[in-house]
Structure to design on (229 residues):
């Protein structure tokens, strides 16, 4: 079955530290890739997305992600985190080749930023 | 735009009762999705509609769950009878068109079944 893996369940960082959250997917064909963020008690919001073109995607709030097709990865990065980045982050994949509108989500990574 | 609207935001009910969750997608969006989020299983797709037609309901846990979309601006997710293991946050999301895959999420309904 197609799946999305987020390797880190919980990441704890101090403010100003650099962040990288891993995401790997198992689809073999063309995919659309997303990172969503869920702040405590809130709904999911889109951070960034990749459909095609430049594999380095820049999103809101200083986040970026790099699509590496050969590694089936779409890791999320931020050079310097802030306390307000404390949230849960979800990677999601859409299998374009299947002609489906579904997004398959990873289990999420909780990020705690210590002031 | 008001975004995706869900009601109620919180629902507490007793086991065996019928629960109806409601969703109003963003105007003009053609696809609508229902998700369930739990600590154990994460975010799971239950069912999605395209142009008001259910496309894939393979994620619906069992016959106690049903979903309808009578028109382009309204959808319901019903659980009858409800059980404690149905306690979760239920999210509705909508997407602009069949070929556009960014989904916009509502605030969710936190359901507690006692």
């Amino acid at each position: 079955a197609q799946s999305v893996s987020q390797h880190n369940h919980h990441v704890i960082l101090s403010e100003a530290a650099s962040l990288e959250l891993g995401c790997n997917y198992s689809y073999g064909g063309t995919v659309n890739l997303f990172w969503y963020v869920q702040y405590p008690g809130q709904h999911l919001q889109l951070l960034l997305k990749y459909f095609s073109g430049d594999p380095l995607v820049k999103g809101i709030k200083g986040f970026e992600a790099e699509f590496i097709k050969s590694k089936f990865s779409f890791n999320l990065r931020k050079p310097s985190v802030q306390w307000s980045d404390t949230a849960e982050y979800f990677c999601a994949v859409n299998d374009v080749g299947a002609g489906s509108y579904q997004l398959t989500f990873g289990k999420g990574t909780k990020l705690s930023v210590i002031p | 735009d008001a975004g995706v609207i869900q009601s109620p935001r919180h629902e507490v009910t007793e086991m065996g009762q019928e629960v109806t969750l409601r969703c109003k997608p963003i105007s003009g969006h053609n696809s609508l999705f229902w998700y369930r989020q739990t600590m154990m299983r994460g975010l799971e797709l239950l069912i999605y509609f395209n142009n008001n037609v259910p496309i894939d309901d393979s994620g619906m846990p069992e016959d106690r769950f049903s979903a309808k979309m009578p028109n382009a601006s309204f959808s319901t997710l019903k659980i009858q009878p409800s059980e404690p293991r149905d306690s979760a946050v239920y999210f509705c999301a909508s997407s602009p068109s069949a070929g556009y895959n960014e989904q916009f999420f509502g605030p969710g309904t936190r359901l507690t079944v006692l």
Remarks:
- Chain A is about 0% helix and 50% strand.
- The radius of gyration of chain A is 14 Å.
- Chain A touches chain B through 22 residues (CB under 8 Å).
- Chain A has a mean pLDDT of 92.
